[in-house]
């Protein structure tokens, strides 16, 4: 049986949830040129892919975080994945807002969370890890024991890895940038020569020399 990271990589590529375009880079909001575009929300409308993702998340949580009592999705991309995975596992879920509501009870954490409960954060994508660490901090301040994060895809960027380490947060992803780049070459989405360019981007996103290597 094929490894889960390769199955998920093929799934994401097939629906262009992760789409490589090294010859015509995308521009991020920060101005950085990127050979990759990511939109894992597309998995929600691709039923077969969604099944692989949600069952993969459930399997990973059972294996890596067997003590998990509650799932908490990141807002907004992680909410649906936390809900579906929680349903599969038969455990509670909630989510963490980016900030407190300005009305009603002014909650930032939605869903019941008891102090001391063991929580796994569900995220769709990790790049620099800033937003998911903010979620972890909110949950910790509320008294939760955060076991770690489970995510669909991670870039493995140095900045993100350092942030996770500094915050003492563990992340387990279904697949990662290196695996997807390799599978993309094998499946003909990109050339073999492009893989090194993609890895060079991942290692240092602010260095655009990888673009010139393809000229």
Task: Spell out the key features of this protein.
single chain; 215 residues; alpha/beta; six-stranded mixed sheet; two-stranded antiparallel sheet; globular
Describe the structure.
- The structure is a single chain.
- This protein is of the alpha/beta class.
- The strands form 3 sheets. It has a 6-stranded mixed β-sheet with strand order 7-6-5-8-9-10, sandwiched between helices. The chain has a two-stranded antiparallel ribbon with strand order 1-4.
- Strand 2 and strand 3 form a beta hairpin.
- Helix 1 runs antiparallel to helix 2 and helix 6 runs antiparallel to helix 7.
- The radius of gyration is 18 Å and the shape is globular.
- It starts with a helix and ends with a helix.
How are the SSEs ordered, and which strands pair?
Elements: H1 4-14, E1 18-20, E2 26-27, E3 33-34, E4 36-38, H2 47-64, E5 70-74, H3 77-89, E6 93-96, E7 109-110, E8 118-126, H4 130-141, E9 145-154, H5 158-166, E10 171-176, H6 177-186, H7 192-203, H8 209-212
Parallel strand pairs: 5-6, 5-8, 8-9, 9-10
Antiparallel strand pairs: 1-4, 2-3, 6-7
């Amino acid at each position: 049986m094929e490894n889960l990271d390769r199955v998920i990589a093929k799934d994401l590529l097939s629906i262009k949830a992760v789409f490589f375009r090294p010859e015509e880079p995308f521009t991020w909001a920060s101005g950085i040129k990127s050979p990759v575009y990511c939109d894992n929300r597309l998995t929600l409308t691709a039923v077969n892919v969604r099944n692989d993702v949600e069952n993969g998340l459930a399997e990973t949580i059972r294996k890596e975080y067997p003590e998990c009592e509650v799932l908490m999705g990141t807002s907004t991309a992680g909410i649906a994945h936390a809900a579906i995975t929680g349903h599969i596992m038969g455990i509670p879920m909630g989510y963490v807002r980016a900030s407190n509501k300005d009305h009603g009870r002014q909650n930032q954490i939605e869903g019941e969370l008891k102090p001391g409960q063991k929580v796994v954060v569900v995220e769709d994508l990790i790049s620099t890890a800033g937003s998911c660490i903010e979620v972890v901090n909110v949950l910790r301040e509320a008294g939760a024991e955060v076991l770690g994060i489970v995510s669909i895809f991670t870039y493995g960027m140095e900045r993100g890895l350092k942030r996770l380490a500094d915050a003492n947060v563990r992340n387990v992803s279904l697949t990662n940038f290196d695996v997807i780049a390799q599978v993309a070459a094998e499946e003909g989405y990109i050339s073999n020569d492009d893989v090194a360019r993609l890895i060079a981007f991942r290692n240092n996103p602010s260095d655009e020399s990888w673009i010139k290597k393809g000229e």
